[in-house]
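Hi V.,

Quick status before I head out on leave. The structure for the redesign project is tokenized and pasted below; the design run finished overnight.
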């Protein structure tokens, strides 16, 4: 029997005691202690027999539902099942009541026969209600179970679709980043072969690290910075002393959960639009802080500011647009994404999403790269 059997037992026992007491009062049996006890005993027995039959009724009903027969045929089969179940119930009820309960309570055959006769019609009505109540409960339970199964399947399907879209967005970054890096290496080879070779070696390390994270949507901020450090090593070969990077993150936030590859597109934009256009270069600042229940990530630079019109166009670029779409998939309305010019020079990108700490990782001092 399923785990819910004890609920049926409790219900059937309650019905037996309650209806037995009610029958005893109605037929004025309270004055006769033996008949009063007999009324309760028989009602308890009546419902305990139903407790023994409810599981077979449910199994037969489920088999009937699975059978590929017409509706009219199912109605006929239900009628036959009802007659068979009631017959079995009456036989068991009669035998135990007459040969076990009546002798124990010392009820005479005449009294027992009188009681059984006057309650026969009522018993048939109750049997009718009991049988169809069990069938209805089974139908309701099956419908609810199918509903929950479909709901679970829908949820799982939605998760699979969301993951597929996230993977597609994440994969979109790889060729975009790879194209830009190879283009930088190609330009460097014409004037500095040694530096170009260093960039190729760093790119190899970066791609190897990236392959280890394939299919992983979330990671720790610590691991995300490790990936970013490999990327910045490539860019430092190209920019030399023109590039400085500062990371301001409290050690406790290194365990924060962040989307994988969330920082690299932001840093790449800062390099391309903020640092590269200036001969003396500049500094990129990466920071993280907690604001209530949110993690706030910022990537800013002190390079060249961008006109508002160009800034709006920049938001539609692959890197920033991809970042925003991934945040929408992962956090829905619980995130914010903003791109603004800094007060003096450069611009900054600010991300906010729910803060969630994952198991601690060893923290290395990454304040300055």
């Amino acid at each position: 029997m399923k785990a819910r059997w004890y609920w049926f037992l409790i219900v059937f026992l309650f019905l037996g005691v309650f209806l037995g007491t009610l029958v005893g009062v109605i037929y004025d049996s309270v004055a006769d202690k033996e008949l009063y006890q007999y009324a309760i005993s028989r009602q308890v027995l009546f419902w305990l027999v139903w407790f023994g039959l409810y599981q077979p009724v449910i199994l037969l009903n489920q088999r009937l539902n699975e059978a590929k027969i017409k509706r009219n045929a199912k109605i006929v089969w239900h009628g036959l099942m009802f007659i068979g179940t009631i017959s079995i119930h009456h036989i068991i009820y009669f035998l135990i009541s007459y040969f076990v309960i009546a002798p124990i309570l010392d009820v005479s055959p005449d009294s027992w026969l009188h009681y059984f006769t006057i309650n026969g019609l009522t018993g048939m009505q109750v049997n009718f209600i009991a049988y169809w109540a069990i069938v209805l409960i089974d139908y309701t339970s099956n419908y609810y179970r199918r509903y929950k199964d479909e709901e679970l399947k829908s949820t799982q399907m939605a998760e699979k679709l969301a993951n597929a879209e996230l993977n597609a967005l994440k994969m979109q970054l790889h060729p975009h980043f790879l194209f830009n890096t190879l283009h930088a290496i190609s330009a460097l080879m014409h004037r500095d072969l040694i530096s170009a070779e260093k960039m190729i070696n760093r790119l190899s390390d970066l791609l190897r690290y990236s392959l280890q994270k394939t299919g992983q949507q979330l990671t720790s901020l610590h691991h995300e910075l490790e990936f970013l450090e490999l990327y910045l090593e490539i860019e430092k070969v190209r920019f030399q002393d023109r590039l400085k990077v500062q990371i301001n993150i409290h050690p406790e936030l290194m365990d924060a959960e962040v989307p994988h590859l969330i920082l690299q597109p932001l840093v790449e934009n800062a390099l391309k639009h903020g640092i590269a256009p200036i001969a003396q270069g500049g500094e990129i600042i990466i920071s993280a802080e907690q604001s209530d229940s949110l993690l706030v990530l910022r990537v800013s630079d002190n390079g060249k500011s961008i006109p508002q019109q160009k800034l709006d166009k920049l938001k539609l670029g692959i890197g920033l647009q991809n970042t925003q779409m991934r945040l929408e998939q992962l956090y829905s309305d619980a995130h914010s994404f903003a791109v603004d010019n800094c007060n003096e020079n450069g611009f900054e990108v600010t991300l906010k999403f729910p803060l969630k700490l994952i198991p601690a990782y060893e923290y290395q001092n990454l304040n300055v790269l």
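Above is the designed sequence. The chain has a mean pLDDT of 78.

G. will cover questions while I'm gone.

Best,
W.
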